[in-house]
Amino acid sequence: MTAEPLNRPATPAAPTSTPTDEMPTGFFRHFHTPRVVFGQDITLRQVVFALFLVFCLTPWASPPVALALGLVLAQTVGNPFTTHTKAFTHKLLQFSVIGLGFGMNAHAAVQAGKEGILFTVVSIFGTLILGYFVGKWMGLGRHVVHLISCGTAICGGSAIAAIGPVLRAKDEEMSVGLGTVFVLNALALFLFPPIGHALAMTQNQFGLWCAIAIHDTSSVVGAAAAYGNQALEVATTVKLARALWIIPVAIGTAMLFKQKGVKITIPYFILGFILAMLFNTFVPAYVPAAAKLGPVMTHLAKIGLTVTLFFIGAGLSAKVVKAVGVKPFVLGIVLWVVISTASLYVILHAA
């Protein structure tokens, strides 16, 4: 096995450009027309992107707001830096998750992990089995079905990016899988907090629900952060423990699909999160000055997460949604609704 980055940008692998690839007509053409400023060619949409990005760095921006700004940008003037945002997104998310570890307590994390382990095992294998039968009934290709099922069961685009090479999936299959979970992942960030408040869920309940029912780590952390610090701690711990299941699922995939000589990614960045959490829990007792590092790193991590979600939203163009097609979306929605409602019921009725 070889180590490769786990969290890749949760955007489709093939044509992920904005809806403004060709020079538009009418009002939006003004945003694409270059103007010379201080000897540099600059377009209005680059200025809009920069203004949105700067806003995401301020205290007024929250993860849902950042994602919404990215979506607005993608559907109107388009993302002028698609290649760059795709390249930065997965690295920025990894660093942000590690930074969140500096604000967490190892003892509480272990307790949260124990509570979530049964949910994790049952939901992962239940989703994979359900996805197989529903996908077969719908007549979808095995690779697409398995990619969407893994993305729903484990950790969204990260799981698909890791499982795809094991399947030797085609670019088109990767694009469909990523596009499906990406759209649903974006919706979850907006839907889950209001549902949690409406049902008067506790911080612990909501954090556990997010980790199980929301696809990607970025939106899990974003939704949980909007709900509260305890929810964030539970959600991040359980989700990262869940992400480790990429390894056994990838090995099982290679065996099931009879693939030999494939590379399996190992999520080493999770080790960074654990080390940061251990540092925050034990080091300040011996080095009091180290206690000042935690709040700073946590603050920077939350800013990084906000920018990550802005980049993700900026990559979701109308073309991406249209390219996915109806059937994969239906499969993704069915799996998402089942895992969300089933886990919600169990969490609310657990003793």
From TrEMBL:
<feature type="region of interest" description="Disordered">
    <location>
        <begin position="1"/>
        <end position="22"/>
    </location>
</feature>
<keyword id="KW-0472">Membrane</keyword>
<dbReference type="GO" id="GO:0005886">
    <property type="term" value="C:plasma membrane"/>
</dbReference>
<feature type="transmembrane region" description="Helical">
    <location>
        <begin position="47"/>
        <end position="72"/>
    </location>
</feature>
<feature type="transmembrane region" description="Helical">
    <location>
        <begin position="174"/>
        <end position="194"/>
    </location>
</feature>
<feature type="transmembrane region" description="Helical">
    <location>
        <begin position="240"/>
        <end position="257"/>
    </location>
</feature>
<keyword id="KW-1133">Transmembrane helix</keyword>
<feature type="transmembrane region" description="Helical">
    <location>
        <begin position="269"/>
        <end position="287"/>
    </location>
</feature>
<feature type="compositionally biased region" description="Low complexity">
    <location>
        <begin position="9"/>
        <end position="20"/>
    </location>
</feature>
<feature type="transmembrane region" description="Helical">
    <location>
        <begin position="299"/>
        <end position="317"/>
    </location>
</feature>
<feature type="transmembrane region" description="Helical">
    <location>
        <begin position="116"/>
        <end position="135"/>
    </location>
</feature>
<feature type="transmembrane region" description="Helical">
    <location>
        <begin position="147"/>
        <end position="168"/>
    </location>
</feature>
<dbReference type="InterPro" id="IPR018383">
    <property type="entry name" value="UPF0324_pro"/>
</dbReference>
<comment type="similarity">
    <text>Belongs to the UPF0324 family.</text>
</comment>
<dbReference type="Pfam" id="PF03601">
    <property type="entry name" value="Cons_hypoth698"/>
</dbReference>
<keyword id="KW-1003">Cell membrane</keyword>
<keyword id="KW-0812">Transmembrane</keyword>
<feature type="transmembrane region" description="Helical">
    <location>
        <begin position="92"/>
        <end position="110"/>
    </location>
</feature>
<protein>
    <submittedName>
        <fullName>Putative sulfate exporter family transporter</fullName>
    </submittedName>
</protein>
<feature type="transmembrane region" description="Helical">
    <location>
        <begin position="329"/>
        <end position="348"/>
    </location>
</feature>
